[in-house]
Amino acid sequence: MKKIISVVGARPNYMKVAPIHRAFQNYSDKVQHLICHTGQHYDANMSDIFFRELELPQPDFYLGVGSGTHAEQTAKIMIEFEKVLMKERPDLVIVVGDVNSTIACSLVAVKLGINVAHVEAGLRSFDRTMPEEINRLLTDQIADYLFVTEKSGIENLKNEGIADEKIFFVGNTMIDSLVYYLPKIEKSTILHELNLKSKEYIVVTLHRPSNVDDPENLVKIFDEFKKIAEKYKIVFPIHPRTRRTLQSSKIDYEHSNILLIEPVGYISFINLVKNSLIVLTDSGGIQEETTYLKIPCLTLRKNTERPITAEVGTNKLIGTEYHRIAEECFDTINNPPKNSQIPPLWDGRAAERITAKVVELLN
User: What is the structure's pLDDT at 267?
Assistant: First the structure.
């Protein structure tokens, strides 16, 4: 019996690990699959609800590291995760995405001689001012098995000198979750609860420090939102980081058509996205989900580590020229993307391919 520990830390990780956990149940005679929650996201709205909604078992290990600077958080995760690995001695550690938990747990495992698999490997924004980019680059250099979501990932890894035999193009487990939960998503009552009508509102999510930590930037952004709100409702599940800046800077964000709501669970959130006119975001994963759902997406960033969403999907990068937000939004609503496609292998079966390959590699 092989023992595998998958690591979750931040909100997007749950959607990536849930289908992997389900797929491993098909190998219960060969694999014991355990989940370690680092506690990097520790707010109940950002974490606990995901375990309930995604039908994940309670984590086998909870590190409870909480927040802090990047160094503090990474160090706490490493100290606590090392204790887990010393006791459990798994055959493999699976890390997903690009958060501090990803690189911290990879480093600990590799130094203890434990193999690491990175799910969502090879994605690159080529912007090293993004902490996530550093996490991605370093994790891929030390991981033993690299599971890739899109073709750019294969090219990036090869360009960085990663051997072909370590790279596996498997598809996207985020999309696995989306496909699996669509029936549940359809039944969400969130539109009724918020008094919204399908295709009559816009969804916003913003959390990147470059956008939300500087009060001047937030003022500019909300000035544009108010222009949009003259025509359409805006639903903004607000990240704790963004709320802190709004409150500490006393920014005037009040408008009858701007609904600032607490972060919602995955099911409710995807229902909001699926029924929206357009999504405005600085998130990575939402670029993928909107591409699959064929919902226009404007990304408030100068780059994306998921170029396939702009090449064949519905995503458009609009940079950080905040004065263009309303104009771009209205233009996209009036001229939505045509001929968008779902990228190769985004078929809801990535986790099946990953677990089959892992079982083959370990045996």
Answer: 93
Angle at 234 between CA 53 and CA 294, to 5 degrees: 65
Segments of the chain with pLDDT less than 70: 41-48, 50
- Contact assessment for residue 147 and residue 102, using Cβ atoms and an 8 Å cutoff: no
66 and 39 Cβ atoms separated by less than 8 Å: yes
Q: Coil, helix or strand for 121?
A: strand
239 annotated active-site = no
21, 70, 207, 239: which is the annotated catalytic residue? Answer: 207
Distance CA 214, CA 212 (A): 6
Distance separating alpha carbons of residues 126 and 10, to the nearest angstrom: 22
pLDDT of the residue at 246: 84
Rg of the chain's alpha carbons, rounded to an integer? 20
* Helices H / strands E in the chain, number of each: 16, 13
CA 228 – CA 207 distance, rounded (Å): 20
CA dist., res. 189 & res. 350, Å (int) = 29
The helix (run of H) or strand (run of E) holding residue 109 is: helix 100-111
**Which pLDDT does position 45 carry in this prediction?**
54
Q: Is 212 left (phi over 0), alpha (psi -120 to 50) or beta?
A: alpha
Query: Which pLDDT score, from 0 to 100, does residue 252 have?
Result: 81
Number of Cβ atoms within 10 Å of the Cβ of 286: 25
Phi, psi of 37, deg, nearest 5 = -100, 115
Instruction: Please give the pLDDT value at position 100.
Output: 95
What pLDDT score does 324 carry? 95
Helix, strand, coil % over all residues of the chain, rounded to 5:
50, 15, 35
Tokens representing residue 82 in the block: 């090392």
- Asked if residue 358 lies in contact with residue 87, where contact means CB atoms within 8 angstroms, the answer is no
11 CB-contact burial (10 Å; exposed 0-12 / middle 13-18 / buried 19+): buried
Burial string for 99-116 (b: 16+ CB within 10 Å, else e) reads bbbbbbbbbbbbeeebbb
**pLDDT score recorded for residue 41:** 63
What the block records as the tokens of 51 is: 């375990």
Adjacent-strand bridge partners of 40: none
